[in-house]
């Protein structure tokens, strides 16, 4: 295979294309890379360009194959080959999954309480056979545990097909039902009778918009539409409350929600709205033994918790039981027969608060000052044992049971690292940077204990910064391959996430979006001032909306970075927000702004949109990934960005791009196969730093 210096640098043709908005002309000479037949991509010129970029990517990576293979072997050496989950109780069975040695996909198992016999109920390995890509969507058994429905995606398009089978009982054999439903979002919710289930259909624009009711053994064409959403900016989902007495239909965008309810024993009935949608207001519903519990931001942006009668759930009947607070950001709620659990953040740290229905409450005490913790698999409504998950930057993921009777944590499983792991070899810190407007921005950092804080060693900085999605200080076994090569690894908790409260999210969206970029730059400069790094010797990465961040800070401060990795990057923000035929655009307007209607939003988005702001300047080394079937960040966004960077950059630093031709937003799907891509990313970082 020739090296990247021996094959031509891919050059995309420039073809005149101009649109006009608000009296302003927008030129886009690489617009032709969007196949007009998308989601089918058949244009030969487009495919030839993508393949040329892939060949150039391979020409750069292949000479480093020895290092890539070494890192890959290190990473998979930390993966337990025959791993399995901790069984969790659900009715008369304990359910769990396992990986057989060498398997890319899981096998799902169960056993009855009264038996030691473990029975296979679904084999992903068999389902994935013959497919380059496979991802399990939903997996749901009936209330009687006699029938299993599941959904799968075999091309990365996130259009899931639902299938159904009878589960073996005694000497009876499994039986695959003829029921097969394509074009769904993947979720499956059984009615109480176990003969019917609800699912969500995707529109031709890939928007979940219809909730359908299917009866086993009947023609899909006869399925009943229970709910249809007419607003293209609202996506629809379906689920069940903790008691399993009610089915919930949720509709919403990023800032507004609405919930409808049905009794699980009467799913064909007219759904009842809990509270009509109100712009900027969110609420989420579960049920206790005698009332609905509602987590809502109607009176406080950090959310409060209210209750409502089961027969009168309307907002007029909401009664507050946990008030909103500046100090307590309530991020989740789950009910049980005798208590409910509140997931929250205090000063950016995740916490689990347990409160009984008489008002007595306490927090679970975890062993480290900085960690990530949440609820695990908790299927039983009536229980005094809570399944929780836990990890930190230096502590591998753990599964624990919390016993309410004595308030003790019982460790059931700690992620095993077969090649060995000694946490005493690493250190972790929480640092605070000061952003451009004086805001204090936290960072979580992990590094080898002999790391020299003199600016000579490499540092990798990661962030996401969008949609109110927090990046917790969690463990990564793969990351050890960087730490063991002398890297420090930092997570910047920039605005746009919600680590410090809902205001943290608000301060990084819409007309405050650029705060996210300034926060990230401030974190890099703080790492320099603290001796972790030196300017020009920092690598950075982010994906999807985190790719927006990568593109923006690369344009703004290319001098800070040695290497940039942008995974499925959302970099053509302006053009995408102007195209309301794309799957996600209408639902994204509350996050980014609507440049179709608002000239101010148009100007602001254009001022930072990475593709639009590429200029003639020196750029750092850049690695880009994409997925041909990606419905979230369409393949042409990174393709156009790379083409424009190639045209305008003024130096000879590395620029490589890979499009997965048979995958989507998440890249390759296999347990080990996906780490080949991680190994290539780490190879790029090691070689460029």
Describe the protein's architecture and organization:
- With 689 residues, this protein is an alpha+beta fold.
- It has a domain at 67-76 and 421-688: Alpha/Beta hydrolase fold, catalytic domain (Rossmann fold).
- The chain contains 12 helices and 38 strands.
- The strands form 9 sheets. Strands 31-32-34-33-35-36-37-38 form an 8-stranded mixed sheet, sandwiched between helices. Strands 3-4-5-6 form a 4-stranded antiparallel sheet. It has a 4-stranded antiparallel sheet with strand order 7-8-9-10, with no helix packed on it.
- Helix 4 (480-483) links the parallel strand 33 (459-462) and strand 34.
- Helix 2 packs across helix 12.
- The chain is globular and about 65 Å long.
- It starts with 17 loop residues before the first strand and ends with a helix.
- The mean pLDDT is 94.
What's the arrangement of secondary structure elements?
Elements: E1 18-21, E2 24-27, H1 44-61, H2 65-77, E3 88-90, E4 93-98, E5 107-112, E6 119-123, H3 124-128, E7 135-141, E8 147-153, E9 160-166, E10 175-184, E11 189-190, E12 196-202, E13 208-215, E14 224-228, E15 235-240, E16 246-252, E17 257-263, E18 272-273, E19 283-287, E20 291-296, E21 304-309, E22 319-322, E23 329-335, E24 339-346, E25 349-356, E26 361-363, E27 372-375, E28 385-391, E29 398-403, E30 408-414, E31 426-434, E32 440-448, E33 459-462, H4 480-483, E34 488-492, H5 502-506, H6 514-529, E35 538-543, H7 545-556, E36 561-567, H8 573-577, H9 585-592, H10 599-608, E37 621-627, H11 636-648, E38 655-660, H12 673-688
Parallel strand pairs: 33-34, 33-35, 35-36, 36-37, 37-38
Antiparallel strand pairs: 1-2, 3-4, 4-5, 5-6, 7-8, 8-9, 9-10, 11-12, 12-13, 13-14, 15-16, 16-17, 17-18, 19-20, 20-21, 21-22, 23-24, 24-25, 25-26, 27-28, 28-29, 29-30, 31-32, 32-34
């Amino acid at each position: 295979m020739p090296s990247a210096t021996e094959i031509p640098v891919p050059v995309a043709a420039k073809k005149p294309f101009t649109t006009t908005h608000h009296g302003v002309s927008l030129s886009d000479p690489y617009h032709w890379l969007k196949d007009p037949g998308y989601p089918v991509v058949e244009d030969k010129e487009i495919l030839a360009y993508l393949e040329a970029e892939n060949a150039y990517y391979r020409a750069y990576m292949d000479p480093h194959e020895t290092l890539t293979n070494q890192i890959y072997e290190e990473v998979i050496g930390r993966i337990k080959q025959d791993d399995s989950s901790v069984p969790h109780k659900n009715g008369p069975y304990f359910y769990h999954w396992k990986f057989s040695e060498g398997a890319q996909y899981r096998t799902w198992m169960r056993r009855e309480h009264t038996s030691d016999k473990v029975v296979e109920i679904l084999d992903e390995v068999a389902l994935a056979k013959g497919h380059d890509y496979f991802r399990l969507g939903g997996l749901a058994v009936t209330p009687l545990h006699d029938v299993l429905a599941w959904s799968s995606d075999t091309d990365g398009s996130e259009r899931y097909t639902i299938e159904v089978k009878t589960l073996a009982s005694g000497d009876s054999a499994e039986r695959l039902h003829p029921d097969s439903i394509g074009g769904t979002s993947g979720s499956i919710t059984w009615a109480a009778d176990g003969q019917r289930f609800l699912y969500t259909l995707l529109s031709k624009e890939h928007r979940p918009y219809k909730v359908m009711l299917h009866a086993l053994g009947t023609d899909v064409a006869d399925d009943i539409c229970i709910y249809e959403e007419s607003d293209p900016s609202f996506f629809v989902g379906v689920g069940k409350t903790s008691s399993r007495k009610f089915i919930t239909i949720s509709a919403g965008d990023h800032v507004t929600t609405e919930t409808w309810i049905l009794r699980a024993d009467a799913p064909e009935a007219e759904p009842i709205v809990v509270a009509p949608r109100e712009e900027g207001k969110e609420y989420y519903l579960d049920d206790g033994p005698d009332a609905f519990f509602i987590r809502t931001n109607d009176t406080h942006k950090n959310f409060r918790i209210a209750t409502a009668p089961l027969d009168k759930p309307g907002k007029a009947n909401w009664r507050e039981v946990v008030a909103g607070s500046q100090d307590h950001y309530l991020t989740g709620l789950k009910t049980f027969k005798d208590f409910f659990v509140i997931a929250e953040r205090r000063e950016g740290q995740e916490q689990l608060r347990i409160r009984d229905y008489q008002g007595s409450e306490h927090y679970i005490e975890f062993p480290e000052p900085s960690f990530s913790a949440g609820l695990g698999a908790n299927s039983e409504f009536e229980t005094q044992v809570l399944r929780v998950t836990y990890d930190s930057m230096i502590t591998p993921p753990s599964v624990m049971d919390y016993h309410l009777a004595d308030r003790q944590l019982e460790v059931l499983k700690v992620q095993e690292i077969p090649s060995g792991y000694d946490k005493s070899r690493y250190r972790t810190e929480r640092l605070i940077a000061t952003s451009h407007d004086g805001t204090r921005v936290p960072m979580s950092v992990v590094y080898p204990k002999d790391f020299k804080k003199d600016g000579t060693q490499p540092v990798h900085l990661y962030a996401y910064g969008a949609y109110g999605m927090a990046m917790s200080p969690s463990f990564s076994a793969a990351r050890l391959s960087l730490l063991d090569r002398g890297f420090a690894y930092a997570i910047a908790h920039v605005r746009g996430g919600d680590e410090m409260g809902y205001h943290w999210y608000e301060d990084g969206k819409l007309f405050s979006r650029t705060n996210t970029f300034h926060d990230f730059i401030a974190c890099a400069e703080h790492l320099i001032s603290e001796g972790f790094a030196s300017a020009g010797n920092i690598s950075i990465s982010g994906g999807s909306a985190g790719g927006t961040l990568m593109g923006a800070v690369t344009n703004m401060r290319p001098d800070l970075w040695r290497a940039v990795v942008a995974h499925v990057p959302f970099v053509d923000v302006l053009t995408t927000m102007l195209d309301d035929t794309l799957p996600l655009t209408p639902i994204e307007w509350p996050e980014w702004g609507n440049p179709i209607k608002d000239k101010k939003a148009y100007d602001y988005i254009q001022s930072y949109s990475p593709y639009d702001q590429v200029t003639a300047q020196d750029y750092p080394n850049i690695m880009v990934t994409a997925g041909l079937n990606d419905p979230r960040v369409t393949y042409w966004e990174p393709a156009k960005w790379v083409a424009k960077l190639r045209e305008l950059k003024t130096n000879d630093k590395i620029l490589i791009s890979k499009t997965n031709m048979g995958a989507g937003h998440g890249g390759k799907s296999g347990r080990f196969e996906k780490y080949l891509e991680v190994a290539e990313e780490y190879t790029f970082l090691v070689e460029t730093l």
